[in-house]
């Protein structure tokens, strides 16, 4: 009986100390980051933290989805490398924490950033395969009523950079024209930067925006939209 009580107390102390440790680490990481930056929860596949005014706010993905740090949004579990909270590497980037617990259960410590190590490899020659995809008609939905129903052709091209998720109307400031942004709630919508402003576009009916080809494809062929709805 005494052994069971001791084991039970140990588990309670361990769980209660893990929460302030994670929160202290997240708040320290957000101290010098801009608002809206998100990173994975090291203790859960489905939760993540968002930086708001220097503090880390914990959020949960929708039911059945995992947080994907590569695209900084929730994604299908099959596309996220995570198993029972273990992501097989650092979920906060190249950040090392030196945190200690004091008797009152709060965490004290400091976080230092370690620059990434660069390994020199022998030069190699790579060949980029040609990507053949069909052209899709996109319906432009702009702020101008005259152009609200204009149709134009977009030729998809290979993905070269990660596509960010639209968070505010200011996301296109300082961004080159033609950059794409995805909608966090709708698979049919996507956005394009034009003259530092966000322009919303809609794919045709029964088509979704494909993040890999940066084009509208038949919805059954698009497997990289986390919300999985129009």
From TrEMBL:
Residues 27-84, 169-227 form the Chitin-binding type-2 domain. Keywords: Chitin-binding, Disulfide bond, Glycoprotein, Repeat, Signal. Residues 1-24 form the signal peptide. The keyword Glycoprotein applies. SUPFAM superfamilies: Invertebrate chitin-binding proteins. InterPro entries: Chitin-bd_dom (IPR002557), Chitin-bd_dom_sf (IPR036508), Chitin_bind-dev_reg (IPR051940). One of its GO terms (cellular component) is extracellular region. Residues 111-126 have a biased composition (Low complexity). It comes from the Eukaryota. It holds the Pfam family CBM_14. SMART domains: ChtBD2. Residues 106-126 are annotated as: Disordered. PROSITE patterns: CHIT_BIND_II. One of its GO terms (molecular function) is chitin binding. This is Chitin-binding type-2 domain-containing protein. It comes from Drosophila melanogaster.
